[in-house]
Amino acid sequence: MVAEEDLVAQLKQADTQSKAFEVLINTYKERLYWHIRRIVLNHDDADDVLQNTFIKVFKNIDGFKGDSQLYSWMYRIATNESLSFMKTKARKLGVNNEELHNRMAQNLQADVYFEGSEIQLKLQQAIATLPEKQKLVFNMKYFDEMKYEEISKVLDTSVGGLKASYHIAVKKLENFLKED
User: Fold this and answer.
1) What pTM was estimated for this model as a whole?
2) 68 Cβ contact partners less than 8 Å away, ≥ 6 residues apart
């Protein structure tokens, strides 16, 4: 595994860029895919957003200053790409983001790429009812096992605010899951 600083340097040099980008994709594609998938809920959409994310990373790598970890920077791009994709999709369908998420959560059972059990399906449907910020914080903390400090860098929010959002999200999910 190449050290992150070396990988970034290789990504910024024309003669090593292509090989370094291949390493970058192989290293991060699965983690980024699942992060995106939890936001857009659909496999094909997640693939499209992942591709757009890597294109943005490639085009903007010279702008990466190293103030955060490379993964945190890419995670932020993936998050923004996912949210933009969902807003565009909602607008095309003439619904708001919340309605779109609810529809997509209901369609998870029909998704051939969704391999979850009944409880996982119920959890995804419950997560779909959360406001956008709570949903992001919950997914990053629960599924991606990110530390609050990392989430703070990705979402550009205070750690205290994130802890509150996570706590409220967990309470809402517990209540939703108890309803059945």
Assistant:
1) 0.81
2) 153
d(CA 92, CA 66): 37
> What would the pLDDT profile of 26-58 be if each residue is shown by its tens digit?
999 999 999 999 888 888 999 999 999 999 999
Q: What is the phi/psi pair of residue 156, to 5°? A: 55, 50
C-alpha to C-alpha distance for 95 and 135, rounded to whole angstroms: 19
Neighbours of 139 (CB within 10 A): 21
Helical axes 70-93 vs 43-60, angle rounded to 10°: 130
pLDDT at position 116 is 60
pLDDT for 108 equals: 63
Query: In b/e form, how buried is each residue of 148-171, taking b as 16+ CB within 10 angstroms?
Result: bebbbbbbebeeeebeebbebbee
* 101-114 burial code (b ≥16 CB/10 A, e <16): beebbeebeeeeeb
Q: Where are the alpha helices (DSSP H) in 12-158?
A: 14-40, 43-60, 70-93, 97-106, 118-128, 132-138, 148-155
Q: What is the DSSP letter of 92?
A: H
DSSP assignment, residue 82? H
- Which position has the higher pLDDT, 65 or 116? 65
Q: Which tokens is 96 given?
A: 């708001």
Give me the pLDDT at residue 110, please. 54
